[in-house]
Amino acid sequence: MAPLFNILSFLVSAETTTQSVLAVPTTENFAHSSCHPSAFSFPTIPGAELINISASSVLHYTKTSLLPGTEATKSYTIDFCNITITYKHTSHNESINVSIWAPKPDDWNRRILALGGGGYAATFDHLYQTAAAGKGFVAIGTDSGHPSGMTSAFDTSWALDADGNSNTHLTEDWGFRTLGEMSVIGKHIVEEYYNRLPDYAYFTGCSGGGRQGLVLAQRYPKAFDGILAAAPAINLETFIPAAYWPTQVMRELKVYPAPCEIEAFTVAAIQQCDALDGDEDGTISMPESCHFEASRLIGKELSCDGEQRRFTKEAAMSVR
């Protein structure tokens, strides 16, 4: 796997409902004649079957975009070949879309950048792909067979079948299977379009996309030369219940502490545990070594919304 700094240097220096991953507003004829469905094929993937290939040229596409795990947005105007590979797994009624935005040959940096999604959405579509293509990468993503985009990040309806039972196959598609397939399909299409394989292939994702990055490293270690997995949302069996816990406690107690009191607990925890890693930077980098007890603050004074209050038992129970 290529050193992580290779990924970072190229990311920095190279300055919604199931919609086709991939819809963009305006298409025109590309000067490069190979941007046509007939120029592409489906690679050999055991247990997978092609449904459709679409390809169209896009000129002067303008969108404000950013990369996963970053906050700085920028407007990009790009020309690219917009390719969508739609396929399914044998004996399963599904439609999986892999989106590939391929810059014009003269604009390509000879690298692939695969982009993760967030929450339960496997890709955020143009939100990330625009920036990646704007920096010269072939930008790829998969919807894993269910709704994509930020508006679908918390949609879990796809995880149940028509009878209300768990759709195990589609959940596995989202969990791992389509991630490895995305790499195979992306490299295959790149070779057909540019008549050569990429020099390097990278993956980057944040939160749910960070989870995807770790899955790729564990299950498909040869799929990418570098993986940037930011803020990975993992250990879902404890992570998800933990996110709902404070709200549930408040409902049971029928008490809803002021946000400023909850924030004061956070500040106190950071003050206690920030320096555990030897660097006081406002971040708890070693949570496993942080043994903050919210109950110790009960009854102590705090400044909250411009007035003096005391930490309450109910608030301590909500944040513990």
UniProtKB/TrEMBL annotation:
Pfam families in the cross-refs: Tannase
Stored Gene3D superfamilies: alpha/beta hydrolase
Signal peptide coordinates: 1-23
Top-level division of the source organism's lineage: Eukaryota
EC class: hydrolase
SUPFAM superfamilies referenced in this protein's UniProt entry, alphabetically: alpha/beta-Hydrolases
GO molecular function, one term: feruloyl esterase activity
InterPro entries documented for this protein: AB_hydrolase_fold, Tannase/feruloyl_esterase
Alphabetic keyword roster: Calcium, Disulfide bond, Hydrolase, Metal-binding, Serine esterase, Signal
Name listed for the protein in its UniProt record: Carboxylic ester hydrolase
Provenance organism: Aureobasidium pullulans
Lineage of producing organism: Eukaryota, Fungi, Dikarya, Ascomycota, Pezizomycotina
